[in-house]
Amino acid sequence: MKIFLSTALAVLAACAGGRTSLKSVDGAEVRLEQLRGRVVLLDFWATWCEPCKLSLPFYATLDGRLRDKGLTVVAVSTDEKDDDVRAFLSRTPLPYTIARDPRGQVAESMGVQMIPTTLLIDRKGAVRLRKQGFTPADETPLRREVEKLLAE
Fold first, then answer.
1. CATH of domain 22-151
2. For the segment 35-50, what is each residue's pLDDT rounded down to a tens digit?
3. What are the boundaries of each domain within the chain?
């Protein structure tokens, strides 16, 4: 898939609505435009996705190590039912924001065609990496890319 997003969080804000927002599983409003100035790892996932079950705990590790250095992780569940997400999170607690996109509108607006899809966005809002799928071999290169962006 082509990387079609090349500009700032203004693009993300437009895709996610700037005017529209996602809701987190705890009901809080999540606006991507408010994340400007931070490196953002934005992951689209689902509870039934086997690679997601590997990536989400890895993102928790990144979050724990790098949040204070400017990383924000937002995992956007595309599951239709909130109960499925809550059950998953009760078995696999995650320390970062879990947002909901049950109709897949934000995912679709961002060109997500497969789960998981991860976008790594620099502090200026430019999408610097678009990754589809996940295996344990992806951990080291992804961590290095996050660290590189945090150092900029």
1. 3.40.30.10
2. 889 999 999 999 999 9
3. 22-151
